[in-house]
Design a protein that fits this description.
Elements (H helix, E strand, L loop, with lengths): L17 H10 L6 E2 L2 H8 L13 E2 L4 H14 L3 E4 L16 E4 L6 E5 L4 E5 L4 H9 L17 H7 L6 H4 L2 H4 E7 L5 E4 L13 H4 L8 E8 L6 E9 L2 H15 L3 E8 H11 L11 E9 L2 H17 L5 E4 L3 H12 L1 H4 L5 E8 L7 H12 L11 E9 L4 E8 L4 H7 L2 H8 L24 H14 L12
Parallel strand pairs: 2-4, 3-4
Antiparallel strand pairs: 1-2, 5-6, 6-9, 7-8, 7-9, 10-12, 10-13, 11-12, 11-15, 14-16, 15-16
Helix pairs in contact: 9-11
This protein binds flavin-adenine dinucleotide (FAD), (2R)-2-hydroxypentanedioic acid and zinc ion.
Length: 484
């Protein structure tokens, strides 16, 4: 668990009193609208990794935008700090309080507002769980343009607030493109109704973009309007073994050329990530022989025969050219799910030792895996990594959305120690900066990276972020102690 010795509670924030609870109860008259029971608060105070933990005494669960507005207006007037929370699956400590901030959970705002079957535009409450949105769409021939391992818990509002990337960004692009409108409660309680449904609208600043990826620091997203593509009729998944990182890159180039419009995901995993996942899943690996690197390719299109033929010819030529050494193709839906598990379960598998340091970075493709090697070498030199309990580090593994230039470096640890931390930081951030990468590709900065923004943003950029924050949230009540 993180300790926060260097951060002091901001004393300009009011401490919660019974009169505040009474007010919240008067606004939220639904059954579980105001949660104060200690046991019930646990889930909301601690993050998914069990690494960051706050001590809030209250969780509020409004059901309407008007209720959110009334709460935020009151908190702003009283200077009560708020942390907005979606599904609490964020990986940078942004979704939980640092001290005693009021937790505003969107979990009771989960209605579908409308769906247009012609345009594919979905309008929904921000607290709708991603998987539920996708199930609703699948019944209507559409697909949510975002997919990620936490889909069963994360909210679409949380996805927008973090600008989540996920497994199919390669195909459907970022939420900056697919989100068409938002409804947001600003820090003074004003409701900004910007729930547009236009693909083209060049009338001044595109205001919604300000909130996409703002991580709960500028406003509370209560509604999302999003353009959803037609659901592909045919899916294929191939799981491949390759002998070098060089081969991973070459296979990607080959896949883009040969599979072109049907390529919907291109993920890579190193051998060590698969070793951890095998332990976690307690099942044999899909490929018999071990390989230094693995690739998961998904194709999706409208014609199974066409896609099968394309995939087969791609695999044949990749084998002939010596790019891939072995591989299997899922034969049915169950196998599709099983193969995806060997990629999607790595985040969970990496917590096998008890703790994990996560780095989610963008790097130029040729440099990308070099970071994992550099970190492993540093940990080896410091004699901190090994198979037995005397070593704090279990392993350093690399995997991710290679098609997007996005590496996930997970350092699985048996315990959190200062020795390990000193080796990792700022080394990792300096390394990324030296390659002109980003210290956060898709998870955001949250609490974990609050002091490291300057590795990826210039002073001028940081000033503009702060100016915006100060203008809209002069009391600093929204998600304090985080990156801005
Ligand atoms: P939370 O964790 O609750 O909150 C995240 C941040 O957004 C916080 O700062 C919070 O204050 C803010 N926030 C949440 N809801 C709102 C709102 N309505 N209004 C304003 N601010 C809000 N991320 C990826 O990008 N790609 C992946 O592939 C991916 N895979 C994951 C797999 C696993 C197993 C896990 C555990 C996480 C993964 N994540 C991934 C990270 C995480 O799921 C995403 O960041 C997700 O978008 C967070 O959504 P959430 O609803 O859980 O938000
Ligand atoms: C993924 O792609 C997620 O699986 C999580 O972004 C990555 O846990 C991680 O580091
Ligand atoms: Zn990811």
């Amino acid at each position: 668990r993180e300790k926060y010795p260097k951060i002091k509670r901001n004393d300009s924030f009011k401490k919660l009193e019974q009169e505040d609870i009474n007010f919240f109860k008067s606004v939220l008259q639904n059954d579980n609208g105001v949660v104060t029971n200690k046991d019930d608060l646990e889930f909301f105070n601690e993050d998914w990794m069990r690494k960051y933990r706050g001590e809030s005494a209250v969780v509020l669960k409004p059901k309407t935008v008007q209720e959110v507005s009334q709460i935020v207006k009151y908190c702003n007037e009283k200077k009560l700090a708020i942390v907005p929370q979606g599904g609490n699956t964020g990986l940078v400590g942004g979704s939980v309080p640092v001290f005693d901030e009021v937790i505003l959970s969107l979990s009771s705002m989960k209605k579908i507002r409308s769906f247009d079957k012609v345009s594919g535009i979905l309008k929904a409450d921000a607290g709708l769980i991603l998987e539920n949105a996708d199930i609703y769409l699948s019944e209507r021939g559409y697909i949510f343009p975002l997919d990620l391992g936490a889909k069963g818990s994360c909210h679409i509002g949380g996805n927008v607030a973090t600008n989540a990337g996920g497994l199919r960004l390669l195909r459907y692009g970022s939420l900056h493109g697919s989100v068409l409108g938002l409804e947001v409660v600003l820090p003074d309680g004003t409701i900004l109704d910007s729930m547009h449904s236009l693909r083209k609208d060049n009338t001044g600043y595109d205001l919604k973009q300000m909130f996409i990826g703002s991580e709960g620091t500028l406003g509370i997203i209560t509604g999302v309007s999003i353009l959803c593509p037609a659901r592909p009729k045919a899916f294929n998944v191939a799981f491949l073994g390759v002998s070098s990182y060089e081969a991973v890159q070459k296979t990607f180039v080959h896949a883009r050329g040969e599979l072109s419009e049907i390529l919907s995901a291109f993920e890579f995993m190193d051998s060590k990530s698969q070793k951890l996942t095998a332990k976690h899943l307690n099942s044999p690996h899909p490929l018999d022989d071990p390989f230094p690197f693995y690739i998961l390719i998904e194709t999706s299109g409208s014609n199974k025969e066409h896609d099968d033929a394309k995939l087969e010819s791609f695999l044949e030529s990749a084998m002939e050219n010596g790019l891939i050494d072995d591989g299997i193709v899922a034969q049915d839906e169950t196998q599709v799910q099983t193969l995806w598990q060997w990629r999607e379960q790595i985040p969970e598998a990496s917590t096998i030792g008890g703790g994990v340091y996560k780095y989610d970075v963008s790097l130029p493709l040729p440099d990308l895996y070099g970071l994992v090697e550099a970190v492993r070498a540093k940990l080896n030199d410091a004699n901190l990594i090994g198979e037995t309990d005397e070593f704090p580090v279990v392993d350093a593994v690399g995997y991710g959305h290679i098609g997007d230039g996005n590496l996930h470096l997970n350092v699985a640890v048996r315990r959190y120690t200062k020795d390990v931390e000193k080796v990792l930081e700022p080394f990792v951030y300096e390394w990324i900066q030296s390659k002109k990468g980003s210290i956060s590709a898709e998870h955001g900065l949250g609490f974990q990276k609050k002091n490291y923004i300057h590795y990826s943003k210039s002073d001028q950029e940081i000033k503009m972020i702060k100016d915006l924050k100060n203008h809209y949230d002069p009391n600093g009540i929204l998600n304090p102690y985080k990156y801005v």
